[in-house]
Amino acid sequence: MNKFIRGFGYAFKGLWYAAKTQLNFRVHLLCTAIALMLGYGLDISASEWLWIIICIGLVLLTELLNTALELLCDVISPEYNEKIGHVKDISAGAVLVTAVTALVIGAVIFLPKLLLLVHHAA
Fold first, then answer.
1. Which residues are catalytic?
2. Crossing angle for the helix pair 23-41 and 46-76, nearest 10 degrees?
3. What pLDDT shows up at residue 116?
4. pLDDT grade, residue 120 (50/70/90)?
5. Distance (Å) of CA 42 to CA 49, 60, 76, 112
6. Which of 8, 17, 56, 62 could form a disulfide linkage to 98, CB 3.0–4.6 angstroms apart?
7. Region 57-65: what's the mean pLDDT?
8. CB of 61 within 8 A of CB of 96?
9. pLDDT digit string (tens) for 65-115?
């Protein structure tokens, strides 16, 4: 059981490392906070919450995997290596695809509600 509990410690240590060292991870955390506040403030439905939570999880997951892969690549090949460069670029591309997908889903959920608020305020 101690080994299991220690595993959580390692996981939180990894999250803390990413938050401390990776600007993009902090940006994604800020976007997470904004999405959660918007969801609460706009009283989104349960199914909309599921989409938002899935998007948040996938964006943070891909950012963490990108960070891990980049660190591993740096250990394997500290000097410039064209193929390692491609691996890092592809990994960053995966984050971009996930983040853009999350942005589109967020826009589909939030924009109509925000536009309705603006329309009523005018």
1. 63
2. 180
3. 94
4. confident
5. 11, 23, 47, 10
6. 62
7. 98
8. no
9. 999 999 999 999 999 999 999 999 999 999 999 999 999 999 999 999 999
Helices 23-41 & 82-121 angle (0-180, nearest 10): 20
Query: Which two tokens mark 79?
Result: 């000097």
Residue 109: which of 62, 58, 55 has the closest Cα?
A: 55
Asked whether the CA dihedral 84, 12, 98, 34 is positive or negative, the reply is negative
Q: Are 35 and 53 in contact (CB under 8 A)?
A: no
Cβ 109 vs Cβ 48: under 8 Å: yes
Listed residue (101, 110, 120) closest to 39, CA to CA: 110
What angle do helix axes 46-76 and 2-21 make, rounded to 10 degrees?
A: 80
